[in-house]
Design goal:
By secondary structure, this protein is an alpha/beta fold. The protein contains 16 helices and 18 strands. The chain has 4 domains: 89 residues, no CATH class; 89 residues, Glutaredoxin (3-Layer(aba) Sandwich), CATH 3.40.30; 252 residues, 3-Layer(aba) Sandwich (Rossmann fold); 35 residues.
Length: 520
């Protein structure tokens, strides 16, 4: 009988552990787990009751005191680890130590997340075990880290046919984004598409970007290498509405247009078109001029009124030859301090560009800033129709040559007859007009859009003009491979040292310490 009582402690502890497992495995059968736990606790109490005198003697031994101290220390260490783990789960910081920051979001995405005002629900329909699922999960964790407004869940289509039918999921790997009564979906796992999806459903309304046509401009419908179809697609990804516009009728330039783009005007603008553009800017409108060498002089005259000077020249750059281009594709690598070029460190290439600079006389209500220049090895060639082009210090201008400027135009209030009209005029002139002028329209054609930072500089400029500060972007980060080449001998040394020798040394050290303590 005594032998059976002495086993009550082991049986009791086993039953308590078994009850915890039962509670975890069969949560809907709590009564069975409770019975096992109570039975185990009763056996432990019985063991203590029948062995009370023996336990008192054990408590007085030095070995028990040492063991008790060790157990208390272990419990304290485990308790500290539990508290630290809890705090880190609630308040944690991420550190990306990779050279290219490939485990971090781009500045564009972070800005979008920091400016979120509404909660975004993300439902990712991925089968369990899918490689794409793990990739998407890693990305969404980073998104949720930067904003508490991001809530996501993963749904296995095979186990949730009801939700598949409700959301009309036709493809594994579909991710649905919801915000209020808006929703959109993607079937990829790229940061660009996720951020664009968030932008689409959180934007109050789509801003309209109109591309001027009727004067030989490049078309947003043209998918050839000289067209702007890629520009249109990228703007639509950011949630803009893109359309074409003809300014023969002044009424076409409506108030719902957020940005007018004039890409390479070959023929002169009509007087009423010039008047419509000026009126649009005076009311706080935004215009993006991309002016090629020998383009319409009416655009040159129009921009002169806003303190922007376009010379009749073409930029020549010897550096571009070293990079695989010709002398007439200047490399732009110098960027002035501006919202557009903040954290932008990528070279851009402008095929057949002209210089764009500040005028000597700038109106008081206009602020003009140069944002991009070519290299010091470039120059602005005046006689570019000659067979052999060489730098002429008497006529040509030595680089760096400015090829992109921006201007902000403050509205001028007029005398009003009544206070009501004055109030309306004041409200109308609060918004400043903005202009961006680039000395080339070819740098974002389908052929050159993805060349280095061309597309990103264009999007940054558009986003600044439309006051979409959170969309100012930089190029996505790329990883560069880091490999170590070992000889077979070096591989064996590393294997035996890390896998066998070091663990064996630690094991032997631990055993020797334990044996010494047992002898004392």
């Amino acid at each position: 009988m005594r032998k059976i009582i002495n086993t009550f402690n082991y049986i009791g502890i086993s039953l308590i552990i078994l009850s915890l497992f039962a509670l975890k495995i069969w949560p809907y059968k709590k009564i069975y787990a409770l019975i096992l736990g109570i039975l185990g606790l009763v056996l432990l109490i019985c063991y203590i009751f029948f062995n009370l005198s023996q336990l008192k003697e054990t408590l007085k031994r030095k070995s028990f005191i040492y063991s008790g101290n060790l157990i208390i220390i272990i419990i304290l260490v485990l308790g500290i680890l539990v508290v630290l783990n809890y705090l880190s789960s609630r308040h944690h910081w991420r550190f990306d130590l990779t050279e290219g920051k490939i485990h971090s979001l781009s500045d564009q995405s972070v800005k979008v997340l920091k400016n979120l005002k509404k909660e975004v629900q993300i439902k990712a329909f991925f089968r369990e075990g899918s490689f794409q699922r793990s990739k998407m999960e890693d990305l969404l964790k980073i998104y949720a880290y930067h904003s508490k407004k991001i809530k996501y869940e993963f749904i296995d289509p095979d186990k949730n046919p009801g939700l598949v039918k409700r959301y009309d999921i036709l493809q594994d790997g579909t991710t649905v984004f919801e915000c209020g009564d808006k929703d959109t979906r993607i079937t990829s796992t790229s940061e660009e598409d996720i951020t664009n999806a968030i932008i689409k459903i959180t934007r109050e309304k789509k801003k309209v970007i109109a591309f001027l046509e009727g004067h030989g401009e490049k078309s947003i419908e043209d998918d050839s290498e000289f067209g702007y179809s890629k520009v249109k697609n990228e703007l639509q990804k950011l949630g803009y509405e893109v359309r074409k516009i003809v300014l023969a009728l002044k009424e076409n330039l409506k108030d719902d247009i957020s940005l007018l783009v004039i890409p390479g005007v070959r023929k002169d603008l009509l007087p009423q078109e010039i008047e419509a553009i000026e009126d649009f800017i005076s009311k706080g409108g935004r215009v993006f001029f991309m002016v090629d060498p020998e383009d319409s002089q009416t655009v040159v005259s129009l921009l002169k009124k806003y303190g922007i000077k376009l010379e009749r020249d073409i930029v020549v750059d010897t550096v571009s030859r070293l990079l695989g281009g010709d002398y007439f594709m200047p490399v732009v690598s110098q960027y002035e301090s501006h919202t557009i070029t903040e954290k932008f460190r990528y070279a851009t290439f402008f095929p057949l560009a002209r210089s764009v600079d500040k005028s000597d006389s700038i109106p008081e209500n206009v602020t003009v800033n140069i944002i991009a220049k070519t290299s010091p090895n470039s120059w602005a060639e005046k006689n570019f129709k000659e067979a052999h082009i060489t730098f002429n210090p008497k006529e040509d201008r030595q680089g760096p040559i400015p090829v992109a400027v921006v201007a902000e135009i403050k509205g001028e209030s007029k005398t009003e007859e009544t206070k009501e009209e004055k109030k309306e005029e004041t409200e109308a002139t609060k918004k400043e007009g903005r202009i961006a002028v680039f000395g080339d329209s070819d740098f974002v054609t389908n052929n050159y859009y993805n060349l280095s930072g061309n597309g990103n500089l264009f999007l940054n400029t558009v986003n600044w003009l439309t006051e979409e500060a959170d969309l100012i972007s930089i190029q996505p980060k790329t990883s560069s491979p880091r490999t170590i080449h070992l000889t077979p001998q070096q591989g064996r040394i590393i294997f035996f040292t890390s896998v066998i020798i070091i663990p064996a040394f630690i094991l032997l050290l631990g055993i020797s310490i334990w044996i010494r303590r047992r002898k004392k």
